[in-house]
Amino acid sequence: MSQITVIYGSTTGTTQSAAERIAQKLNARCVDIASAKAEDLQTPVLVLGTSTWGFGDLQDDWMSAEKLLQDADLSGKKTAFFGFGDQSGFGDTFVDAMGILCQTALEKGAVLIGKTSTEGYSYGASRAEIDGEFCGLALDDANQPEMTDARIDAWTEQLLKEIG
Questions:
Q1: Per-residue pLDDT tens for 102-144?
Q2: Are residues 7 and 62 in contact, defined by beta-carbon separation less than 8 angstroms?
Q3: What is the CATH code of the structural domain delimited by 4-163?
Q4: What is the Cα–Cα distance from 20 to 68, expressed in whole angstroms?
Q5: 139 φ, ψ to 5°?
Q6: pTM score of the predicted model
Q7: Which residue among 17, 22, 31, 49 sits deepest, i.e. has the most Cβ atoms within 10 Å of its Cβ?
Q8: Which among 113, 161, 104 has a CA at the least distance from the CA of 137?
Q9: How far is residue 4 from each of residues 1, 44, 149, measured CA to CA in Å?
Q10: Mean pLDDT for the chain?
Q11: Per-domain residue ranges of the chain
């Protein structure tokens, strides 16, 4: 069994595609939150992914499964996040859903890994920003699709170093 599990929620397939790419680069298991079970949260390292919908809302499958995360004991578990948003159309809630997942995981004892710079983005506000950095990998296929692959590549290399 892999030491890393990537768990994602995807409505249009964009987050699923990124999750599969991330899982491949990390040699990790990849699980859709819609079918996830409590055991899926028990690997030493978690990578959680979501898109942001509406005005800063979690992706629907994550909303349905949020109790799974809230019931988990993530004490000391290295946890990374990635999320999709639209920095032009929804610049005041850019990747907020990633921030929501991060906040919940930190409250459950998770150890945050994989923070990234806010440079190269243009947005008004984000719940995913902590001390001037994103709590994870922010992706914007609506406005910067040409940057997604390079951002995933750099971030997964960063994660492998942080995981040890």
A1: 999 999 999 999 999 999 999 999 999 999 999 999 999 999 9
A2: no
A3: 3.40.50.360
A4: 21
A5: -125, 145
A6: 0.95
A7: 49
A8: 113
A9: 9, 6, 20
A10: 94
A11: 4-163
